[in-house]
């Protein structure tokens, strides 16, 4: 289960995982995105940056988001035998490394509230072990990208366009994977669509395609020194949330504002790909932005690459992040360190996550039997 920074809902993927060598054979059995109810979504927006949140608000949201996750899991998994669940939760605040200290990050969604509703062990809180080891706590999905998307002889770029645009740069050989956040993904696009169009997103990028980007505003935005920082780096609503949409944006009509946001994301991605030496490599896109045709066309232009959604590699682009956390949950049950220290800046690989156990002895015995089996 996964909920992104765009607050578009809870992604629930039911997957069958079978250990195969150092990786997994994966079959997606069911997938749904269930929107938060309007009241809970409003409370989350009021607690997220740049708004301050009281300790009471955080406490109540943790319980209520956990209940929403549990109900979503029960609904999507109805009638199926589920062995365990893995929940990323909803990020409430994320800080990268703080000088010599590791990152600080908080994902809410009480795992015990989830367990209460589905009756199985829940793996959760995947990021803080990496932070404790001096890392950013993000991105974590590149560990799974490398496992599932490496293509011998051909470099690839895995691009997730959630609220933030995350890049995984996968060499065609056995070389190390590079990964980092590139900047805003859908965050600004969705916020503009919500406020200016009265819609949760710009369907197919239609409004952006009609508009003309304000290039002076694009260049001013990309002059933020964060974009020039080398990896490891991660970001979120704290830096690129609705608060950056200042008076200059209000002077643009809705279509031009959306075209400007698309141009910012595309140029940030293009610059990151070029600077990393992956210009021209195939780009495989997942996340909500995979449906924004204007954004995909702009990214193809800026990277000089062929751009496809991950469905062409057999992975549902909407479900990929949820699938990744199912894999990370299985790695925790196996006792295998996950994450990529080179990507996050951690001192070394760590076991990622905690467990809200239910019949854990039996579950671990089954995992051991699967791992040691044929």
Reported CATH architecture of the largest domain? 2-Layer Sandwich
- What is the CA–CA distance across the termini? 29 Å
Helix fraction? 40-55%
Order of helices and strands: EEHHEEEHEHHEEEHHHHHHEHEHHEH
Largest sheet: 5 strands, mixed
Mean pLDDT: 95
Number of domains: 2
- State the name of the first-level CATH class of the largest domain: Alpha Beta
Low-confidence stretches: none
Structure description:
- By secondary structure, the protein is α/β, with parallel strands linked by helices.
- The protein contains 15 helices and twelve strands.
- The strands form four sheets. It has a five-stranded mixed sheet with strand order 9-8-7-10-11, sandwiched between helices.
- Helix 1 (38-47) packs antiparallel against helix 2 and helix 2 (55-76) runs parallel beside helix 3 (111-118).
- The chain starts with 9 loop residues before the first strand and ends with a helix.
